[in-house]
Amino acid sequence: MNQHRVKEGVSLLKQNGIRMTPQRMAIMDYLANAESHPTADDIFNSLTHKLPFMTNATVYNALKCFKKYGIVNELIFGRASSRYEWATSFHYHVVCTSCGKIRDFDYPKLVDVERFAERKTGYTITQHFFEAYGTCPDCNKT
């Protein structure tokens, strides 16, 4: 499944004239296999041993490119660093206020909220984000 994601991502970038560098490939592979929602710094720190000449700017530029083409989602939670995830089916997030851990959870899309917002504001709603905040089971143990 993850290799399938990477192949689709590579194909999409190539169709749009984006050259696949070893750095972009490594970042894409990392994100496709990530079980967490890493920050750009997490990605950089995890890959510098493989690609010692890679810079933080390279990671940020690749993430910006991947986001532009819908390969990854950027998650912004308050003032914390943005986190990234592979763009998959629609889902929501729950964030631990103690350790910052993020988990995905499925729930029917809040279409009624989008329609209500459209009626009240006149905006055409194209997307929404929802996060629930609390304390994760690991932090509750301490």
From TrEMBL:
Key words of the record: Cytoplasm, DNA-binding, Iron, Manganese, Metal-binding, Repressor, Transcription, Transcription regulation, Zinc
Subcellular localization(s) per the UniProt record: Cytoplasm
Entry's Gene Ontology BP terms: negative regulation of DNA-templated transcription; regulation of secondary metabolite biosynthetic process
Domain of life: Bacteria
Major location category of this protein: cytoplasm
CDD domains linked to this entry: Fur_like
GO molecular function: DNA-binding transcription factor activity; transcription cis-regulatory region binding; zinc ion binding
Stored PANTHER family: PEROXIDE-RESPONSIVE REPRESSOR PERR, ZINC UPTAKE REGULATION PROTEIN
The protein's name: Fur family peroxide stress response transcriptional regulator
Organism expressing this protein natively: Scopulibacillus darangshiensis
